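Hey team,

Filing this mostly as a record. A colleague (T.K.) asked me to run one chain through the structure pipeline before their review meeting, and I want the input and output archived in the tracker in case anyone asks later how it was produced. No errors, nothing strange. Just documentation.

Input sequence:
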Amino acid sequence: MPAFPLDAFLSSLPWAAAGLAVLLAATFAVAVRQNRHSVIDTVWGLGFVVVAAISWLLSAGHGDDGRRLLLLVLVAVWGVRLAVHIGLRSRGGHEDPRYVDMLSSAPGSRNVYALRRVYLPQGVVLFFVSLTVQVGMFSTGRLGWLALPGVLLWILGFVFETVGDRQLAQFKADPARRGTVLNTGLWRYTRHPNYFGDAAVWAGLFLVAADSWPGVLTVLSPALMIWTLAGKTGKPLTEKAMSGRPGYREYIESTSGFLPLPPRRPRAGGR
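Output structure:
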């Protein structure tokens, strides 16, 4: 197996970072014009697509063609679907309450504060998480057995995320269910099928990259994504916003917080 092309990989990093910076700068300009910084959520998935596309182009002649194409397709399908979903969901809407809360305490310029507290951190996290894909693009070993469970895990995650988002959209579109808690479909087995799906997608991409050295060294990249979803900004902020909704306490007691599991029976004598 040819050695990992370290020089070519290192030379590609500034280009990937530059492509990401251009995307975020354009997003910031649109957000300032619309006075709505939550538009960055729409380009979150697209940022990974941009980095993957740049890495795919620059890894030509260095990395294994099969892995390069597989990673590009998996990231593009996931990223574009997520961007379209969030874009349609927030079309014509107002600023996301999370951003309202964050930016309401901004010292000085609200836009400069958003640039420092939202765009820069998200750009750094996005670039770090995408290192799994970037390294995988330059890995020279041919696809092996580990790529198969990686693709299967990606499919599982993509289905959970896509179906979960669709079920939530249908739930919100029903006026009769306004103010209630979605506890059917995939939401019966996990309180966050969309976040679990994201985590599974990136765990699957890691397995595809780890199929050849030195992809296994990027384990901290999917770990950061999973920690962000399950313990930082995904699950905790969503549950904080939902905590006052009638029936949500009972939903927490009966439904797994992240991993899909059979619903728990209510405790005897519990409320």
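Quick notes for T.K.: The CA atoms of residues 48 and 58 lie 15 Å apart. The chain has a mean pLDDT of 92.
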